[in-house]
Amino acid sequence: MTLPNFLLIGATKSGTSSLHDYLRQHPDIYMPATREQKFFAIAGQEISRPQSVRDTNLGANITTRLRDYEALFHRVDDEVAIGENSNAYLWSVKAPERIKHHIPNVKILAILRHPADRAYSDFLMNHRNGLCQFATFEDAIDAERTKLTEHWALWLPFFVRGGNYFDHLSRYYQHFPQSRIGVFLLDDLRRNPQVIMQKVYSFLGVESSFVPDFRRRNAGWVARNDQVDLMMSRLIGGWQGIQRGLEPVRSHIPDRWKGKLCIGKALNRVRTWNHKRPPQMSHETRYRLVEYYRDDILRLQCLIDRDLSMWMTT
Length: 314
Prior knowledge:
Layout: E1 6-8, H1 16-25, E2 29-30, H2 39-42, H3 66-71, E3 81-85, H4 88-91, H5 95-102, E4 107-112, H6 115-129, H7 137-144, H8 165-175, E5 181-185, H9 186-191, H10 193-204, E6 222-223, H11 226-246, H12 255-258, H13 263-273, E7 275-276, H14 283-304
Helix pairs in contact: 8-14, 11-13
């Protein structure tokens, strides 16, 4: 039985897509191509998706049974580091204990972003996926104010609470030695990606001189027209379903027809045309969030031994 020896636990909207990609490029690291299996956060639960979800693939990778989770790693060969990325692990109250039970010697990897920026980016993602029905970020965080003591649960908004990094990371420091926890900052990864990846690779025990392709992934956006985006999302999801159905017979499809199976790229180009850069968070909202996070940031500084004063200015 092969299980991972490291986990990338989040935070959501903090560079985990890019970090996952940089890790997968390393020849001595094995990670499944898919992310967000969430096994240690929701093991044994029955899962159903909200009807409001636009992305038909959202939640498709969720794994709740141990044997299915183990199957993710059946292609491991002689890689030194074996990992998986589920951002829900940072927020889940149950995940640290479950991880400790199944893989007690695992290494925990986290990347953090300014909590106010993370919250806003998370709102934008959930809004375009149909998981948040609030028209504005301010409405969403006002609604969450009455739930600040509630724990994370699948599909529920966690914009503000998701940035309480000290509270979330403390659970891991309670279960694992500090030497097995690596915490990095998105600001540093953006500023000097090669240096940070050398540190990440070294933490995982693989050759640190490897240089991955650092092209940016998963940039934030909002739709110019929500109805167009909804239509394109459903078309793309439907086409991806057809492709999965054709996979067993793909080798028998004549070459002259295979090019036509790239229609998904054309659909994605149309959807991308409908994208635009999101508006900036208002200064007032940013100030409000920074004040909310101030105590957590001060405690986090001590926990990870890192100056975070830049997160407390507006």
